[in-house]
Amino acid sequence: MGRRSKLRRGGRAITAIPGGFLHLSLLASLRRRPSLQAHAQLLLLGLPLPAPTASRLLRPHLRSGNPSASLRLFLRVLRDRDCDRRPCPVDSQEDVPDSSSFSAALAACSRHASPSPGFSIHAFLLKSRFASNVYAANSLLHFYGSFGLHSLAHKLFDEMPTRDTVSFNTLISSYVQSCCIHDAFEVFRIMVESGLRPDGWTVTALLGACAELQDLRAAKAVHGVARRMLEPQVFHSGEVATSLVDAYVKCRGMELARQVFDLAEDNARNARLWTTMVSGYARAQEFDIAQRLFHEMPEKDTVAWTALIGGFVRAGRYKEAVVLFEEMEEAGFEADEATIVTVLSACVGYGNIDLAKRLHCLVGRDGLINRNAKLATTFVDMYAKHGCIQTAQEVFSGVDDDFKTLELFNAMINGLARCKFGEKAIALFDEMGSLGLHPDKITFVCILSACRYSGLVSQGFRIFDSMEEKYGVKPEIEHYTCMADLLARDGQLDNAYIFIQNMPFKANSVVWSSLVRACMLHGNIKIRKLAEEQLLQLDPNYKPENLPLSNLFSEGKRKERTARVRKFLNHKPVCKHTK
DNA sequence: ATAGGGTTAG
């Protein structure tokens, strides 16, 4: 361990006094001057840091803003303790991070772009004396859930010595988020059986499951459960009312949603409940009612505006969406991340280039786009889809590494694939691991598509073969489709045919028609007949002229429609803040 | 101390 007591900065040596005092005064200055945060934290990284100080330093920072730097610091502290290999004094509160800093750190891990810091903290937690602390364990549960690692979450849950309502709620939400609805209800059953009373969070999670399934009957059943099992004041709260309305809306039960809304008491009728109703009517394409309700809404906010704008976008009424956005700005509401994402798709649909550029400027200011993966992903996706792959890449590489998420990589790889930059896509794919990001099944669809559009046969198979053994992602029919098409486009039509027949899935019409198309291209009549027989079995009305060549056509049409968009987008936004 | 809620969507 290189323990330095002197740090150099700008030619001036700062003498550090080992011990807590310096840290505490730094901490104080850090609170007062946010601009110093990054520097002060770097300074601290070079110092031996007493753990209690670290805890005090970290707790407020891990909760808000950019937790990445704080997380690095926390891990550093943990490693320092670990390297010392001192026997951990069981009763001593000294020199060891306390349990609440583990919770705070894990909460930060859940919001981090990559799961790796969370894995490390789990390891340290196991060695600490808080391994069975229910707060720490619940935070860990939430961490696994937030990265969709529900099997790890469940394993952890099974091993927890104590479980409380929060543990159950967290596991249920984890399953709902991974669309394992059946498991979510199963956990709920066990929860009730073990005598724990569900609370508002439980009901909300279950209603989320009903909404996901679009199962109106299930939503009604959960409504009944809530009425019977919740404390009356919880049942009548705005939170529960909002989840009920949200579930009914998503299950297309507007009348029921309206009933809940009408019956809600005044204190439960908050902005969220209003917004849910507005967005519900907008989803149901009842724009008159949605707008009337929106105007009746006592305290509109950015989210409510965004909900209505989003309704118009979803209905393809882009012009109205853009007009509404302008009204919103005039009324003095500031666009947030969701607004930008929503309005951007309206711009693309409506061909409003000036607004798209203005939005890019808006998020380029203060480098917002460089620290917000969702924004960056939307812009990367938009630029790539319009063939502005260079601008897409600029947006991508502008994002700080700590903020690069799996979705962002997927969007960039997908963009490179579509523009036939296969090699670049593979390079990017290889880069993910170093940021602690694990490719998922979507990543593989993108990267294998990159190979097929660029004719990279051997690389494609190398990656395909590594999917399960190296990355633990089981190939699905989409991946097999890519591989069959990769072979077919390469002219290996016999191999493609054999490959399709040996797939562990029943080939669908997508697979066969891509083979027919490749046969037409390479003039292979024998395989084409075989493929067409299969297509006829799948669809007795199959005719070669109905073959979904539409891909090609629509691509051509899309290109034409977006040519104008691209022309403008290729010029960087005229904005000094961007970049 | 630990968890979500309404807006984003190819």
Q: What does this 3D model show about the protein?
A:
It is a single chain. The protein is an all-alpha fold and 579 residues long. The protein is 70% helix and 1% strand. It is built from 32 helices and 2 strands. Strands 1-2 form a two-stranded antiparallel sheet. Helix 9 runs parallel beside helix 11, helix 18 packs antiparallel against helix 19 and helix 24 runs parallel beside helix 26. The two termini are 38 Å apart. The structure holds one DNA strand of 10 nucleotides.
Topology:
Layout (H helix, E strand, L loop, with lengths): L5 E4 L2 E4 L4 H13 L4 H9 L5 H13 L3 H18 L14 H13 L4 H12 L6 H13 L3 H10 L5 H13 L3 H13 L6 H14 L2 H14 L2 H4 L2 H13 L3 H10 L7 H13 L3 H10 L5 H13 L3 H13 L6 H14 L2 H12 L8 H13 L3 H10 L7 H13 L3 H11 L8 H14 L2 H15 L5 H13 L3 H10 L6 H14 L2 H14 L11 H20 L10
Antiparallel strand pairs: 1-2
Helix pairs in contact: 2-4, 3-4, 3-5, 4-5, 4-6, 5-6, 5-7, 7-8, 7-9, 8-9, 9-10, 9-11, 10-11, 11-12, 11-14, 14-15, 14-16, 15-16, 16-17, 16-18, 17-18, 18-19, 18-20, 19-20, 20-21, 20-22, 22-23, 22-24, 23-24, 24-25, 24-26, 25-26, 26-27, 26-28, 27-28, 28-29, 28-30, 29-30, 30-31
The chain binds one DNA strand of 10 nucleotides through helix 5, helix 7, helix 9, helix 11 and helix 14.
